[in-house]
Amino acid sequence: MKRRFNLIYLILACCSLLNPLQIAQSKTSLAHWQKADINWRQYQGSHINVLADEQPAFMALKPYLPVFQKLTGISVGFHALEQSKMRHRRAIDLNKGLGLYDVIPMGVTFLGQAHANNYIEPLADYLNNPQLTDLNWYKMEDISPNSLSLCQIDGTLLSLPFDFSAPIYFYRKDLFEKFNISVPDTYETLLTTKKTLQQALDKDPEYNDMHAFASRTMPGAGLNTWTVLPIMRSYGAQIVSKKLTATSNSHAAHTAIRVYRDLVTGYGNPKNSRTLHFYQIRKLFKEGKLASAFIASHFYNEIDTEKESIIWDKWEAAPLPKGPHSRETSPWAWAFSINAQSKNKSAAWLFIQWATSAQTATLLSTGGSPPRMQVWQEQLFSLVNKPGFNNTMLWVFENATPSYIQSGITLFPEIGEIISHAYSQIFYGADIQNTLDDSNKKIDSILNKNE
Questions:
Q1: Domains plus CATH for the chain?
Q2: Which of the listed residues 59, 115, 172, 309 has the most CB atoms within 10 Å of its CB?
Q3: Angle CA(155)–CA(156)–CA(158) in degrees, nearest 5?
Q4: In 3-state terms, what secondary structure has residue 296?
């Protein structure tokens, strides 16, 4: 009885009442979506539950739910949670086959596991069904190929992206100009820049509460790994080879993690730099307490107006620095999947098609980072109006590819957890080689066990 009550309570929590802002958004014209040659109202009267992350892109979608409900006659329960809580709730729903949520938020790091366990529906049958999808209207070709690659396993499309980002280098352009500091192009130069910048800040009373640099350090698969893995690749290192061999303790990996450790700890970093969550880094930069940081590119929409941030007109961005091997980043697409246990799969598909369409992407462009190039070319590049950021986003769209370990392999959640805690120990002063050797043995054991 208690379990039944909890499930009922959860569903009710999803179905919160719409606020006045959402009601206002319901007046948005339906004309664009009605150009699609499908019957949007073929499942009117249905109800779907959507699980979401509290990231800005998801929250930007929420006010427009009345538009979808008016278009389709399908009611929507929208349940947004902080990321770790969302992942926990998603795991419970999928592992137990509860089917509480019809639409599930998905990222590539969990995609392989979800596919291997048949947790989510392949989307080809929905996409190619003319009763459900007008492909000419939907324009799949407009979606960034790099973002779509994060939504499939072995050519099977399992989700559709509506937000696309990658870690880039955000910095205070005004401070770099004031102190005559160049934007670093290599990781070694960034180490020097951090020290030089902090020394300049310390000499100016106006900036006595500011730090030069920060990046992710909190352990967890998809947390510190998201910004460590690009530097690993840029130094020629991989955690796991394509032959499924553990290689996380190579000489290149040792060098890369030493450089990253020196970047995120010591002089020039916030006092709690060894446990920084990405939410904290964003907050510090937004409040003018951080001069530079590795942050997800979609962060621009939290700092691009005077209302949102006191540094809205003072920042710029550049690609992550390059290493001796290459310049890399870690692309990420927040996407929507259909829960295999959903009782309303076709209605869920209509929601995903609507949420990832070109017109909806236009509505969400100030709250997210759409994967559709047309929105960037026609609207966002001129709206943001920062040459460095715009060129960086073009580089992300054209060049960003995931590391093999983050390309949807089934074992990433387990391996990522191991290696992220090894990195955390190194940030606290553990011997680099011994720590990497120990974690590599654990990874090797996992790989051998799953042969």
A1: 45-164+332-387 (3.40.190.10), 167-330+411-449 (3.40.190.10)
A2: 172
A3: 135
A4: strand
